[in-house]
Amino acid sequence: MDLDPRRLAVLAAIARRGTLAGAAAALHVTPSAVSQQLAQLEHSVGRPLVDRSGRRAVLTAAGRVLAGRAEAIARELAEAERELAAMSGRAAGLVRVAAFATVIRHLLVPAMALLAEDFPDVVCAITELEGGPALRELRLGGIDLTITERDAVLGLETHRRLTVIPLCEDQYRVVVPVGWPPVHSYADLVDRPWVAGSPSSTTGQILDRVCREQGFAPRRVHECLDYPTVLALVAAGHGATIVPDLALRGVSRDEITVTSLPGAGARRLDAHVTAARAQLPAVEALLSCLRTVAPGPR
Fold first, then answer.
1. Nearest residue to 142 via CA among 281, 25, 38, 15
2. Which of 19, 52, 54, 154 shows its CA 20 to 30 Å from the CA of 219?
3. pLDDT, tens digit (0-9, with 9 covering 90-100), for 212-248
4. Which pLDDT value is given to residue 296?
5. E strands of 24-144, at which residues?
């Protein structure tokens, strides 16, 4: 019986993803390649490992045994990688990161420049993905690290089987069009239109919290998540908004007015990694660079 570890890794990916196509996407190969590797492994074992009769690939009893062993092998290899890197005293390797647009633009891009200078053997690969899908991809092993946001008043968010590493707090600002009368208090904005994130988004929740604390409901006229689009609407005079400091980087103050209204608070930016990846020197190197370029209190 020839149990090729590479074919076992394919079986483990099928177990995690539930389909051959999902496993192929995670492994960056074609579904045909996954099917061939699986067939060769089943031939070596002499029994079926995956039930293909339904829409999802369900592992047989033998498949579950081998997939569990494959996961254990992967953990051992990750530990060996960490130990070897520690012995060499050099951070090296690929770190796959999922994040959203403002973090990619204003944190990851500067951090990657610093990474290239201080840790030239570490490579960062970025996927634009956030929230629940990013955390799921992290648990499935498709990425090594993801960055999340949440209202700072809610404190640190924890997730089962994940390590949460605080990066910074990003202060929120109330922004209005330059053509509006001076804004001295929230009372000046009670009847004004707002450009807001969806109620389920972090910025949408923060707008609702701030307005609730100030005793009024915001008049949501436009709903957008992309900060450049939000600020373009504000610059055109279509409403006020609340955005974090990172979103204001590089934005001309001739186009918008950033008020000094208090109480908007901040968002927490946290990195999430699995325990197996948290201590890898390459991941630690990227986290170090992220903390260096991050704004506000750490």
1. 25
2. 154
3. 999 999 999 999 989 999 999 999 999 999 999 999 9
4. 63
5. 50-51, 58-59, 93-99, 122-128
